[in-house]
Amino acid sequence: MRIRLHGTPGGRQTLAGRLATVCRVVAVSPPYADRRGGGLVRVYLDVRLPDQPDQADQADQHDRTRDRSKGGTS
């Protein structure tokens, strides 16, 4: 899931820290200046819920399932 945070640099950092207590933050974009100026920034967080595997984990699981269907032993 991708979440966009938009606000002051301090507010953005505070909220990102709080989000990390309820979900797993797997990537954070660099801050982008707000298009309208005013000192606001936006960042994008890629997050996973605690029970949600990473996409790499899902791809690996898919590959193992496909190999089994072809007679593989992985």
Short description:
The chain is an alpha+beta fold and 74 residues long. The protein has helices spanning 9-19, 55-69, and strands at 2-7, 24-28, 32-33, 41-48.
Folded structure, characterized:
By secondary structure, the chain is α+β, with helices and mostly antiparallel strands. It has one domain. Helix content is 35%, strand content 28%. It contains two helices and four strands. It has helices at 9-19, 55-69, and strands at 2-7, 24-28, 32-33, 41-48. Strands 1, 2, 3 and 4 form a four-stranded antiparallel sheet that branches. It is elongated and about 40 Å long. The two termini are 29 Å apart. 1% of the residues are buried. The model has no long low-confidence stretch (mean pLDDT 78).
Which descriptors apply to this entry?
alpha+beta; 4-stranded antiparallel β-sheet; 28% strand; elongated
Rg over CA atoms, rounded to whole Å, is: 18 Å
Distance between the termini: 29 Å
- Strand content range: 25-35%
Question: How many β strands by DSSP?
Answer: 4
**Mean of residue pLDDT?**
78
Structural domains: how many: 1
Major sheet: size, sense and barrel closure?
4 strands, antiparallel
What does the overall shape look like?
A: elongated
- Helix-strand category: alpha+beta
Contiguous low-pLDDT stretches (5 residues minimum) are none
Number of helices: 2
What sequence of helices (H) and strands (E) makes up the elements? Answer: EHEEEH
Helix content: 25-40%
- Oligomeric state of shown chains: single chain
